[in-house]
Amino acid sequence: MTIGEALKHQRIRLGLTQDEMIQGIIHKSHYSKIERGIEGISAESLFKILFAHHIDVDSFLELIKNEYISENEKRAEELENKVRIAFNTSDKNEIENCLQEVLKLPGNKVFKYRIIVAIAAFRGQLDELSVGIKEDIIKEFTRHDTWLGDIDALRLFGNCMQVFTEKQLNNCISQILKQYSNNNASERMIERIAIICNNYLYYCYYYGYRNETNITNV
C-alpha cells in the first residue's frame, strides 16, 4: 500500500471527506493527487494530517512498509514467518533449512541473532552458543544509545534474553518499566513491551532468576 492509498484507507475508515481530512494543511487538489499516486507528500504535511486525526504513526507505517522496504527486508520477514510456522509444527528439517537461508542474508545482524538464539532454544542448545556469538549480540544491543525507544533493539533484547547475565537482564527490565510505566507509547511499542515482559517472566520461572533490582517498586 502506497502512502496515498494508506491515507485514503484511513480517511474512509474515519468517514471523512478529503476537505475534512486535510483540514487546510495542504490544497485539496494536491491531496487528491496524493491519494491517486500522482504526487508525493512532504513528511511534515503527512505527520500534520496523521496527528490531526490521532492516527497512530506506527500503525500507518505498518500499512505502507511493504511498499518501501528493500527486497532483503521482505525476504527476512518471509523467513521469520516460516520459522514461526516451523516452530509451531515442530518441523526440524524446515527449521534447519530456514536457518541456512537466514545465514545467507546480507546484513540484518539483529534479525540473524534473533533467529540463531530462537533456534538454539528450540533445540535445547542455548548453552552451546559460542562466547563470541553472545558477546556480539550484547555489543549489537548496547550499540543503540537510545535502545529504550528503538523497536529493533527491543526486539533483539526480547528474543535474546538468554545471552544476558541475570544482573544485565534485571537492569534492562527495570529501565524499560521506568520508561514506559507512565508513558503514552504507540500500540506497536506497547505490544513489544508486553512481549518482553512475558518473555522475562518465562525466563525468571524457567531459569529460576531472582530479581535483585526490586522492579516491583518501579
If you had to describe this structure to a student in words, what would you say it looks like?
This protein is an all-alpha fold and 218 residues long. The protein has two domains: 3-68, lambda repressor-like DNA-binding domains (434 Repressor (Amino-terminal Domain)); 129-217, no CATH class. 69% of the residues lie in helices and 0% in strands. It has helices at 3-14, 18-22, 28-35, 43-52, 57-68, 71-89, 92-104, 109-123, 131-142, 151-159, 166-180, 187-207. Helix 8 runs parallel beside helix 10 (151-159). The longest helix has 21 residues, at 187-207.
Give a short overview.
The protein contains twelve helices and no strands.
Q: Layout of SSEs?
A:
Elements: H1 3-14, H2 18-22, H3 28-35, H4 43-52, H5 57-68, H6 71-89, H7 92-104, H8 109-123, H9 131-142, H10 151-159, H11 166-180, H12 187-207
Helix pairs in contact: 6-7, 7-8, 8-10, 9-10, 10-12, 11-12
Radius of gyration: 21 Å
Number of structural domains? 2
Number of helices: 12
The multimeric state of the shown protein is single chain
> How many strands?
0
- Please state the structural category: mainly alpha
Low-confidence stretches: 210-218
Kindly report the average pLDDT value: 87
How helical, in percent, are the residues?
A: 55-70%
Share of β-strand residues? under 5%
Run of helices and strands: HHHHHHHHHHHH
**What is the makeup of the main sheet?**
none
Span between termini: 41 Å
The coarse silhouette is elongated
Pfam families: HTH_3
Domain HTH cro/C1-type: 7-60
Protein name: Transcriptional regulator
InterPro entries: Cro/C1-type_HTH, HTH-type_regulator_Rgg, Lambda_DNA-bd_dom_sf, TPR-like_helical_dom_sf
